[in-house]
Amino acid sequence: MPLDRYIQPMIRELANPTRFMSLSGTLLPWVGGLAAILMIVGLYMVWFAAPADYQQGETVKIMYLHVPAAWLSLFFYMIMATSALGTLVWRHPLADVSQKAAAPIGAAFTLICLVTGSLWGKPMWGTYWQWDARLTSMLVMLLIYLGILALWRAIEEPNRAARAVSILTLVGAVNVPIVKFSVDWWNTLHQPASVFRIDGPTIHASMLVPLLIMAVAFSLVGIALHLAGMRTEILRRRVRTLTILEAERLDAQAA
Amino acid sequence: MSHTFFIAFSYILTALVVAGLILRAVIDHRMQVRALADLESRGIGRRSRRG
Known about the structure:
The structure holds 2 protein chains of 2 kinds.
Chain A: H1 2-14, H2 17-49, H3 63-90, H4 95-125, H5 133-154, H6 158-172, H7 175-185, H8 205-254
Helix pairs in contact in A: 2-8, 3-4, 3-6, 3-8, 4-5, 4-8, 5-6, 5-7
Chain B: H1 4-41
Protein backbone atom coordinates (compact mmCIF):
# COMPACT_ATOMS: atom_id res chain seq x y z
CA MET A 1 0.00 0.00 0.00
CA PRO A 2 1.49 3.38 -0.97
CA LEU A 3 0.21 4.94 2.26
CA ASP A 4 2.27 2.53 4.33
CA ARG A 5 5.34 3.27 2.28
CA TYR A 6 5.23 6.94 3.30
CA ILE A 7 3.61 6.94 6.71
CA GLN A 8 5.43 4.04 8.33
CA PRO A 9 8.95 5.37 7.71
CA MET A 10 7.73 8.77 8.92
CA ILE A 11 6.43 7.31 12.18
CA ARG A 12 9.62 5.26 12.58
CA GLU A 13 11.70 8.36 11.90
CA LEU A 14 9.80 10.24 14.61
CA ALA A 15 10.48 7.40 17.05
CA ASN A 16 13.91 8.91 17.51
CA PRO A 17 13.40 11.50 20.30
CA THR A 18 16.31 13.65 19.07
CA ARG A 19 14.75 13.81 15.60
CA PHE A 20 11.37 14.62 17.17
CA MET A 21 12.92 17.40 19.26
CA SER A 22 14.44 19.15 16.25
CA LEU A 23 11.30 18.77 14.10
CA SER A 24 8.88 19.87 16.85
CA GLY A 25 11.20 22.75 17.75
CA THR A 26 10.89 24.09 14.21
CA LEU A 27 7.15 23.44 14.02
CA LEU A 28 6.10 24.82 17.41
CA PRO A 29 6.52 28.61 16.77
CA TRP A 30 4.54 28.30 13.52
CA VAL A 31 1.68 26.37 15.07
CA GLY A 32 1.63 28.71 18.07
CA GLY A 33 1.75 31.82 15.88
CA LEU A 34 -1.01 30.59 13.60
CA ALA A 35 -3.11 29.70 16.65
CA ALA A 36 -2.70 33.24 18.03
CA ILE A 37 -3.63 34.89 14.71
CA LEU A 38 -6.70 32.69 14.18
CA MET A 39 -7.77 33.24 17.79
CA ILE A 40 -7.66 37.02 17.28
CA VAL A 41 -9.57 36.75 13.96
CA GLY A 42 -12.10 34.36 15.51
CA LEU A 43 -12.68 36.52 18.60
CA TYR A 44 -13.04 39.63 16.43
CA MET A 45 -15.70 37.89 14.33
CA VAL A 46 -17.51 36.60 17.42
CA TRP A 47 -17.60 39.99 19.13
CA PHE A 48 -17.99 42.39 16.20
CA ALA A 49 -19.40 40.46 13.22
CA ALA A 50 -21.51 37.49 14.36
CA PRO A 51 -25.15 38.39 15.05
CA ALA A 52 -27.02 37.80 18.29
CA ASP A 53 -29.40 34.85 18.19
CA TYR A 54 -33.06 35.71 17.70
CA GLN A 55 -34.06 33.57 20.67
CA GLN A 56 -30.93 33.41 22.81
CA GLY A 57 -29.71 36.97 22.32
CA GLU A 58 -26.05 37.55 23.13
CA THR A 59 -25.64 34.38 25.23
CA VAL A 60 -25.04 32.55 21.95
CA LYS A 61 -21.50 33.98 22.25
CA ILE A 62 -20.83 31.25 24.82
CA MET A 63 -21.25 28.72 21.99
CA TYR A 64 -17.96 29.85 20.39
CA LEU A 65 -16.08 28.63 23.47
CA HIS A 66 -18.30 25.74 24.54
CA VAL A 67 -18.42 23.87 21.22
CA PRO A 68 -14.67 24.01 20.36
CA ALA A 69 -13.85 22.98 23.95
CA ALA A 70 -16.18 19.98 23.62
CA TRP A 71 -14.58 18.95 20.33
CA LEU A 72 -11.10 19.26 21.81
CA SER A 73 -12.11 17.18 24.81
CA LEU A 74 -13.00 14.31 22.46
CA PHE A 75 -10.08 15.03 20.11
CA PHE A 76 -7.53 14.76 22.92
CA TYR A 77 -9.13 11.60 24.19
CA MET A 78 -8.70 10.11 20.72
CA ILE A 79 -5.05 11.19 20.72
CA MET A 80 -4.69 9.44 24.08
CA ALA A 81 -6.41 6.27 22.85
CA THR A 82 -4.20 6.16 19.74
CA SER A 83 -1.13 6.70 21.94
CA ALA A 84 -2.32 3.93 24.25
CA LEU A 85 -2.40 1.57 21.27
CA GLY A 86 1.08 2.86 20.39
CA THR A 87 2.30 1.88 23.86
CA LEU A 88 0.59 -1.52 24.08
CA VAL A 89 0.69 -2.77 20.47
CA TRP A 90 3.48 -1.03 18.58
CA ARG A 91 5.66 -0.17 21.57
CA HIS A 92 6.43 3.19 20.04
CA PRO A 93 8.86 5.05 22.34
CA LEU A 94 7.03 8.37 21.99
CA ALA A 95 3.52 6.97 22.49
CA ASP A 96 3.61 7.28 26.26
CA VAL A 97 5.21 10.73 25.98
CA SER A 98 2.33 11.80 23.73
CA GLN A 99 -0.30 10.35 26.04
CA LYS A 100 1.17 11.97 29.11
CA ALA A 101 1.30 15.38 27.41
CA ALA A 102 -2.28 15.06 26.11
CA ALA A 103 -4.07 14.17 29.37
CA PRO A 104 -3.95 17.51 31.25
CA ILE A 105 -4.84 19.43 28.08
CA GLY A 106 -7.84 17.20 27.40
CA ALA A 107 -8.94 17.48 31.02
CA ALA A 108 -8.68 21.29 30.92
CA PHE A 109 -10.84 21.56 27.78
CA THR A 110 -13.39 19.16 29.26
CA LEU A 111 -13.60 21.43 32.29
CA ILE A 112 -14.05 24.50 30.05
CA CYS A 113 -16.80 22.67 28.15
CA LEU A 114 -18.65 21.72 31.35
CA VAL A 115 -18.40 25.13 33.03
CA THR A 116 -19.28 27.20 29.94
CA GLY A 117 -22.14 24.77 29.27
CA SER A 118 -23.39 25.29 32.78
CA LEU A 119 -23.10 29.08 32.45
CA TRP A 120 -25.03 28.88 29.18
CA GLY A 121 -27.61 26.53 30.66
CA LYS A 122 -28.63 28.82 33.51
CA PRO A 123 -29.93 31.73 31.40
CA MET A 124 -31.26 29.51 28.56
CA TRP A 125 -32.66 26.41 30.30
CA GLY A 126 -33.11 27.92 33.74
CA THR A 127 -30.68 25.49 35.35
CA TYR A 128 -26.93 25.11 35.74
CA TRP A 129 -27.10 21.34 35.63
CA GLN A 130 -29.36 18.55 34.44
CA TRP A 131 -28.59 14.83 34.69
CA ASP A 132 -29.27 14.25 31.01
CA ALA A 133 -27.22 11.84 28.89
CA ARG A 134 -24.97 14.42 27.20
CA LEU A 135 -24.12 16.33 30.36
CA THR A 136 -23.61 13.21 32.43
CA SER A 137 -21.42 11.46 29.84
CA MET A 138 -19.30 14.63 29.57
CA LEU A 139 -18.90 14.68 33.37
CA VAL A 140 -17.84 11.02 33.18
CA MET A 141 -15.31 12.13 30.55
CA LEU A 142 -13.77 14.58 33.02
CA LEU A 143 -13.70 11.88 35.71
CA ILE A 144 -11.93 9.47 33.33
CA TYR A 145 -9.35 12.14 32.52
CA LEU A 146 -8.78 12.78 36.24
CA GLY A 147 -8.60 9.03 36.92
CA ILE A 148 -5.92 8.64 34.26
CA LEU A 149 -3.92 11.56 35.70
CA ALA A 150 -4.21 10.05 39.19
CA LEU A 151 -3.12 6.58 38.02
CA TRP A 152 0.10 8.03 36.60
CA ARG A 153 0.94 9.46 39.98
CA ALA A 154 0.06 6.23 41.77
CA ILE A 155 2.54 4.00 39.90
CA GLU A 156 6.14 5.03 40.25
CA GLU A 157 7.86 2.82 37.67
CA PRO A 158 7.30 4.59 34.29
CA ASN A 159 6.90 1.48 32.10
CA ARG A 160 4.37 -0.14 34.41
CA ALA A 161 2.51 3.18 34.72
CA ALA A 162 2.43 3.51 30.93
CA ARG A 163 0.87 0.05 30.48
CA ALA A 164 -1.70 0.50 33.25
CA VAL A 165 -2.69 3.96 32.01
CA SER A 166 -2.95 2.68 28.42
CA ILE A 167 -5.35 -0.08 29.43
CA LEU A 168 -7.49 2.37 31.43
CA THR A 169 -7.45 4.81 28.49
CA LEU A 170 -8.68 2.15 26.04
CA VAL A 171 -11.43 1.04 28.41
CA GLY A 172 -12.46 4.68 28.87
CA ALA A 173 -12.57 5.19 25.09
CA VAL A 174 -16.02 3.56 25.10
CA ASN A 175 -17.27 6.88 26.47
CA VAL A 176 -16.27 8.82 23.32
CA PRO A 177 -19.12 7.52 21.09
CA ILE A 178 -21.47 7.71 24.08
CA VAL A 179 -20.74 11.45 24.45
CA LYS A 180 -21.08 12.03 20.69
CA PHE A 181 -24.30 10.07 20.14
CA SER A 182 -25.94 10.58 23.54
CA VAL A 183 -28.13 13.31 22.03
CA ASP A 184 -29.44 10.84 19.41
CA TRP A 185 -29.76 7.75 21.59
CA TRP A 186 -31.55 9.38 24.49
CA ASN A 187 -34.06 12.16 24.93
CA THR A 188 -31.84 14.96 26.23
CA LEU A 189 -32.30 18.55 27.27
CA HIS A 190 -29.09 19.22 25.34
CA GLN A 191 -29.72 19.91 21.65
CA PRO A 192 -28.64 17.37 18.99
CA ALA A 193 -25.68 17.95 16.63
CA SER A 194 -26.02 21.00 14.39
CA VAL A 195 -22.64 21.16 12.63
CA PHE A 196 -21.51 17.60 11.78
CA ARG A 197 -24.73 16.22 10.33
CA ILE A 198 -25.34 14.01 7.30
CA ASP A 199 -27.77 16.59 5.89
CA GLY A 200 -25.32 19.47 6.47
CA PRO A 201 -25.03 22.10 9.21
CA THR A 202 -28.21 23.73 10.50
CA ILE A 203 -26.44 26.90 11.65
CA HIS A 204 -26.47 30.00 9.48
CA ALA A 205 -23.12 30.87 7.86
CA SER A 206 -22.90 34.12 9.88
CA MET A 207 -22.45 31.97 13.00
CA LEU A 208 -20.97 28.84 11.45
CA VAL A 209 -17.92 30.60 9.98
CA PRO A 210 -16.77 32.21 13.27
CA LEU A 211 -17.51 28.93 15.06
CA LEU A 212 -15.31 26.97 12.66
CA ILE A 213 -12.53 29.57 12.89
CA MET A 214 -12.67 29.37 16.69
CA ALA A 215 -12.62 25.57 16.46
CA VAL A 216 -9.49 25.61 14.28
CA ALA A 217 -7.87 28.21 16.58
CA PHE A 218 -8.64 26.11 19.68
CA SER A 219 -7.30 23.00 17.93
CA LEU A 220 -4.03 24.76 17.03
CA VAL A 221 -3.67 26.00 20.62
CA GLY A 222 -4.21 22.42 21.75
CA ILE A 223 -1.71 20.99 19.24
CA ALA A 224 0.90 23.62 20.20
CA LEU A 225 0.42 22.76 23.89
CA HIS A 226 0.65 19.06 23.07
CA LEU A 227 3.91 19.50 21.13
CA ALA A 228 5.36 21.66 23.91
CA GLY A 229 4.25 19.13 26.53
CA MET A 230 5.88 16.27 24.62
CA ARG A 231 9.15 18.19 24.35
CA THR A 232 9.15 18.87 28.09
CA GLU A 233 8.30 15.24 28.82
CA ILE A 234 11.28 14.06 26.74
CA LEU A 235 13.53 16.42 28.71
CA ARG A 236 12.02 15.16 31.98
CA ARG A 237 12.93 11.59 30.99
CA ARG A 238 16.48 12.63 30.15
CA VAL A 239 16.74 14.32 33.55
CA ARG A 240 15.42 11.16 35.21
CA THR A 241 17.88 8.90 33.37
CA LEU A 242 20.83 11.17 34.16
CA THR A 243 19.82 11.51 37.82
CA ILE A 244 19.74 7.72 38.15
CA LEU A 245 23.09 7.55 36.36
CA GLU A 246 24.57 10.08 38.77
CA ALA A 247 23.26 8.18 41.78
CA GLU A 248 24.73 4.92 40.44
CA ARG A 249 28.06 6.62 39.92
CA LEU A 250 28.08 8.07 43.43
CA ASP A 251 27.21 4.60 44.75
CA ALA A 252 30.11 3.08 42.84
CA GLN A 253 32.48 5.74 44.18
CA ALA A 254 31.36 5.16 47.76
CA ALA A 255 31.81 1.38 47.47
CA MET B 1 -28.26 43.06 29.68
CA SER B 2 -28.64 40.59 32.52
CA HIS B 3 -26.95 37.81 30.55
CA THR B 4 -23.67 39.73 30.49
CA PHE B 5 -22.50 38.03 33.69
CA PHE B 6 -22.79 34.53 32.20
CA ILE B 7 -21.05 35.54 28.97
CA ALA B 8 -18.24 37.44 30.73
CA PHE B 9 -17.72 34.64 33.25
CA SER B 10 -17.45 32.08 30.42
CA TYR B 11 -14.84 34.10 28.55
CA ILE B 12 -12.83 34.98 31.67
CA LEU B 13 -12.80 31.38 32.86
CA THR B 14 -11.74 30.03 29.45
CA ALA B 15 -8.99 32.66 29.21
CA LEU B 16 -7.73 31.76 32.70
CA VAL B 17 -7.67 28.00 32.03
CA VAL B 18 -5.89 28.41 28.67
CA ALA B 19 -3.42 30.91 30.19
CA GLY B 20 -2.83 28.41 32.99
CA LEU B 21 -2.05 25.65 30.49
CA ILE B 22 0.41 27.91 28.63
CA LEU B 23 2.06 29.10 31.85
CA ARG B 24 2.38 25.54 33.13
CA ALA B 25 3.97 24.46 29.83
CA VAL B 26 6.51 27.32 29.94
CA ILE B 27 7.44 26.86 33.62
CA ASP B 28 7.71 23.07 33.36
CA HIS B 29 9.89 23.35 30.26
CA ARG B 30 12.21 25.85 31.96
CA MET B 31 12.52 23.64 35.03
CA GLN B 32 13.55 20.62 32.96
CA VAL B 33 16.02 22.63 30.86
CA ARG B 34 17.58 23.97 34.05
CA ALA B 35 17.77 20.53 35.67
CA LEU B 36 19.39 19.11 32.55
CA ALA B 37 21.93 21.95 32.37
CA ASP B 38 22.67 21.43 36.06
CA LEU B 39 23.34 17.70 35.57
CA GLU B 40 25.48 18.32 32.53
CA SER B 41 27.54 20.97 34.35
CA ARG B 42 28.37 18.28 36.89
CA GLY B 43 29.67 16.09 34.09
CA ILE B 44 26.65 13.76 33.91
CA GLY B 45 26.21 14.18 30.15
CA ARG B 46 24.80 11.71 27.69
CA ARG B 47 28.24 10.73 26.40
CA SER B 48 29.67 10.05 29.82
CA ARG B 49 27.52 6.91 29.88
CA ARG B 50 29.77 5.30 27.29
CA GLY B 51 33.04 6.45 28.79
